Amino acid sequence: MHLLDLDVLRREDVEKILEYAEYFKKNRYNHEKILKDKSIAIIFEKPSTRTRMSFDIAVHELGGHSLIMNQNEIHLGKKESIKDTARVMSRYVDAIVARVYEHKTLEDLAKYGTVPVINALSNLAHPCQILADLLTIKEYKKSFKGKKIAYLGDGNNVCNSLILGSALVGMDMVVATPRGYEPNALNVLKALEIIDEYGEGSLKLTNDPIEAAEDADILYTDVWISMGDEKNLEHVMKIFPPFQINEKLLEYAKDDVIVMHCLPANRGMEITDEVIDGEHSVVYDEAENRLHAQKAIFKFIFEKSSSDIR
């Protein structure tokens, strides 16, 4: 089984992953070593702090061996085709975790390899981050039912996966972006299909940040400028400021609202210091939960892969 985005999961799958994550968090140094005698390749075309640390430590604490390679240490799609890389790596390792520029790179690794592929970030999706986010929301809000989550800013990879995750757990989500910066249309369609299937939750797109923040239980934002896209900074700074999460915007949300950001944050741009360091912020719990969610992902995927073989 591969995890390229959350649309491959069902609600019961998400519930199981969160159950595993809660167990691993409660028993961090006293749990089964499910990766014993397993090696995991972790590829980074893009640099990382939380993703690298959380995956490396997760593999170690699960009893496995991680082999980390950055873009200068692997010929992925350059001197060697992705097809050949996937086939060769599948002979060495038990799973591939990859943080890449193009989502198609992950699709090709999954297509040509014979081991599970986990998306640690692509231009389209960031499923591992969202599973950690759902764990954080569950910790603070206890239940997803009837909760409103508002995402403000750029309809980027985090937003694309968040709309799927929110739909899978039945939350009501409002996405507020400037015109032309809406989330991926196919992900929106998939989320609406999930909502229709389960008969719970909702999804709305708007260009009004106040409408999104009104009575929200969760406010979520991410950077306005993705890595490698800095050339658009001047244009972005003209149209994105109304979508900043600041103390004024907080006044529209519920009194017990939690504020989330997947980090790293451009303080003073998409979120102010007062908010990210304030009483409503849960960003550091959110970051910690990457570790526990990653362990849960490994457990779930290897269980599913084993059952598929049988």
From TrEMBL:
It catalyses: carbamoyl phosphate + L-ornithine = L-citrulline + phosphate + H(+). Its EC number is 2.1.3.3. The keyword DNA repair does not apply. SUPFAM superfamilies: Aspartate/ornithine carbamoyltransferase. Residues 145-300 form the Aspartate/ornithine carbamoyltransferase Asp/Orn-binding domain. InterPro entries: Asp/Orn_carbamoyltranf_P-bd (IPR006132), Asp/Orn_carbamoylTrfase (IPR006130), Asp/Orn_carbamoylTrfase_sf (IPR036901), Asp_carbamoyltransf_Asp/Orn-bd (IPR006131), Orn/put_carbamltrans (IPR002292), OTCase_ArgI (IPR024904). L-ornithine binds at residues 157, 222, 226-227. Transmembrane segments: none annotated. Residues 2-139 form the Aspartate/ornithine carbamoyltransferase carbamoyl-P binding domain. The keyword Transferase applies. Carbamoyl phosphate binds at residues 48-51, 99, 126-129, 262-263, 290. One of its GO terms (biological process) is L-arginine biosynthetic process via ornithine. PANTHER family: ORNITHINE CARBAMOYLTRANSFERASE, MITOCHONDRIAL (PTHR45753), ORNITHINE TRANSCARBAMYLASE, MITOCHONDRIAL (PTHR45753:SF3). Belongs to the aspartate/ornithine carbamoyltransferase superfamily. OTCase family. This is Ornithine carbamoyltransferase, catabolic. It comes from Methanotorris igneus (strain DSM 5666 / JCM 11834 / Kol 5).
